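hey so i finally got around to running the thing on that chain from the lab meeting. sorry it took forever, my laptop kept dying and i had to restart like 3 times. anyway pasting the input first so we r on the same page abt which one it is
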Amino acid sequence: MNARLARLRRPLAALFAAAAAGLALMALRPGPPPSVRVLAAARDLPAGTTLTPPDLHHVNLPPAAVPSGTLRSGTGRLLAAPMREDEPLTDTRVVGDGLLRAYGRGTVATPVRIADAEAVRLLDPGDHIDVLTAPAPLPALPDATAGPPRDAAQVVVSSVPVITIPAPNEAGSRHGALIVLATNRSQALALAAATAPLSLTINPAQHDHTP
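ok and heres what got predicted. didnt touch it at all, straight out
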């Protein structure tokens, strides 16, 4: 028996030494780097998207890569700008206080319906536009005499930025297209008081389609 133990002593010692070395290496191996779990876009999302659960998922980012203003929830929020897949969701990407702060104090988000939905398709968030009254056409007269003169179109607000363009729905498209503008309160009141159909012109000095 002693002879058998003597023969096994060396292999057992080597096995125990290897196990101890392995445990030491595991103890010295650095753990996973720290990360922060944040909410991000699950796919490329266009501006005007009303966020639903399938549009969002969580990603892990190094603490230094986490942008300020990240949101813990986003379902039901309206995107003010396009998002790339896995881009963290922040308060400047959705319509709300965080976004409006970038436009200065006293700014409010003002929804406006433009009569010509095709004209709205030319817009991108960040474009500056003039909003004008667009008087409805007069009915045709039974004779050839000229009807009463039409009122000229008037500028309601000038050079206001487009925050976002909500995704159209089938029912609403027959009545123009909705856009959200960054205005002050007096401009918002002027738009609310404009009862005629509204049209727009794009400010050429500030119109920019670059992403």
